[in-house]
Amino acid sequence: MRVEPAASVSFDIEVPVAIIGAGAAGLVAALAAHEAGAEVLVVERDPVPRGSTALSAGLVPAPGTRWQRESAIEDSPELFARDIMAKAKNEPDPALVARLAGAVGPALEWLSHRHGLPFSVITDFRYPGHSANRMHGLPSRSGEELVDRLARAVEEAGIPVLCEATVDTLYTEDGAIRGIALVRPDGSRDRVACRALVLACNGYGGNKALVAQHVPELADALYFGHEGNQGDALLWGEALGAATRHLSGHQGHGSVAHPHGILITWATITEGGFQVNAEGRRFSDESKGYSEQAAEVLRQPGGTAVTVFDARIAGIARQFEDFRRAEGAGAIVAADTMAALAARLHLPEEALTATLAEVEALKRAGGRDDFGRSFAGVPMLSPPYRAVRVTGALFHTQGGLVVDGDARVLRQDGAPIPNLFAAGGAACGVSGTGPGGYLSGNGLLAAVALGRIAGQAAGAMA
C-alpha cells in the first residue's frame, strides 16, 4: 500500500466520489453520496460485493425505530449510547457514540423506505449488554442477504461497482487526496482522480502480522472475517499522518461450529445454554458476551468447547440461516438424554450430567455461579437436548483511523484530512481496547451509520 505525490500523475478518468470497498459500509456510503447528487465509483477487489458483511448474521442494532414502536419496545439513542459506553467501560469517544446511536435508526428506515430493505426487529431473545430488543435484520437473518440487497440497490441506482480491482496507491497534493491507482488481475492499471475518497475496506483481521502485533492473544485463532481485510486503510492512514486509536480492539466469537466453520447464534447461550470443555466442565461466565468468549474457548484443551442447549432454543436459533445450514451439515447433535449426548460428543458422561445438574439447580434458585454468571430468570433446559462443538475465532478488528462526527479522517493534531473519509472497520469504532468492549452489532453499526454519514459528507463536498 503506497501513498505518492499526485504532481506528475496523469489520471485516466475522474469521479467526484471514489469508495474503496463494497461491503455494507461502502455500499451504504455509495447510496448516500449518490442521493447527495454526486457521481460515485465503488472499487472492490472481489469478483462480487461481499466483504465481512456476508460472513455476519447481518444484524444492525438501532434504537427508536418504527419496527420497535410496532412491537411496543421502548428504546432511545440515549439508552443505546449508555449501553455502548457501559460495555466498553467508557473507553470510546462519547461524541462518536452519540452520533452513531442517533444516526443508525434513521439510516435503517431510509434503507427500508427508499431502497426496499425489509428489516424487522428480533423480539424473542436479547443479546448481552443490550437493555432493549434493538437488533434488526432481514428475513433470512444473514449478512449475505444484507450485502446482496444493498448491492442490488446500488445497481438499481446506476452506481458503477468496479470489481476485481485492487487499489494499491493513493495520490495526494497539498495534504488532500487527489486520486487512486488500481490494478486488475491481468496486471493492467488505471489511475482515477477524485474529489473525495471514502475508505470502506475494513480493518486488518486478515493480516497475520498486524494481528500478532495488536491482538497477540488471537494471533493463531481461526480468522472468520474476509481475507481481503489486510489493513489497507490503517496503513494508508498511518502514511498520511492520520491518528489511530484502540488498535487492540476486536470482535471475537466463541461459537463457530468446528470443524464446519459455521457461525452459531449466541441465542444458544442467552436462552439458557452453557459451554463445557473436553472434560465436560464449564470454564467461564458465558453470559458476558460472545466476543470475549473467543479467547476463553481457545484456552481450553484442543481450542474447542461444546455448547449445550435444547430443542426449544434450537427453534429460536432456526430463524438464522447459518443455524439452519449447521443443522443441514450435521454440526448440531441431538439426543434424548445427557448420557446419549455425552456418548455422541465423546465427553465424560458423569461430568456432563453433573454440570447440567449444577446449572439447572442454579436456575431454580436464581443463583450466581463461581464465574459470576447469574442464572436468575434463565429458562431451564429440557429433553430432547442439542449440542454443537465450537471453536473461538477472530471476526474483525474494531480499532482504526480516528474520525469526527462527519466521518472525516483526522490527523494526529486533530485537524481533518480535507477530503478523506472512513467508515465501517476502517474507522476506529466504539468498542474500546479489547474484546469485552464489543457490544453485539457494533461492527454493522459503524458500517451502516458511519457509512451513510461518510457518503452524505463526501457527496456534499464533491
Q: What does this entry look like structurally?
A:
The protein has 462 residues and is of the alpha/beta class. It is 33% helix and 23% strand. The protein folds into two domains: 2-243 and 398-461, FAD/NAD(P)-binding domain; 250-394, Succinate dehydrogenase/fumarate reductase flavoprotein, catalytic domain (Flavocytochrome C3, Chain A, domain 1). The protein contains 14 helices and 21 strands. The strands form four sheets. Strands 1, 2, 3, 7, 8, 9, 10, 20 and 21 form a nine-stranded mixed β-sheet that branches. Strands 11, 13, 14, 15, 16, 17 and 18 form a seven-stranded mixed β-sheet that branches. Strands 4-6-5 form a three-stranded antiparallel β-sheet. The longest helix has 22 residues, at 94-115. It is elongated and about 75 Å long. It starts with a strand and ends with a helix. Pfam families: FAD_binding_2.
From the helix content, strand content and strand pairing, which structural class follows?
alpha/beta
Estimate the strand proportion.
15-25%
CATH class of the largest domain: Alpha Beta
What's the domain count? 2
CATH domain topology of the largest domain: FAD/NAD(P)-binding domain
Please compute the radius of gyration using only Cα atoms.
22 Å
Number of helices: 14
Unreliable residue stretches: none
Organism: Methylobacterium nonmethylotrophicum
InterPro entries: FAD-dep_OxRdtase_2_FAD-bd (IPR003953), FAD-oxidoreductase_2 (IPR050315), FAD/NAD-bd_sf (IPR036188), Succ_DH/fumarate_Rdtase_cat_sf (IPR027477)
Keywords: FAD, Flavoprotein, Oxidoreductase
Protein name: FAD-dependent oxidoreductase
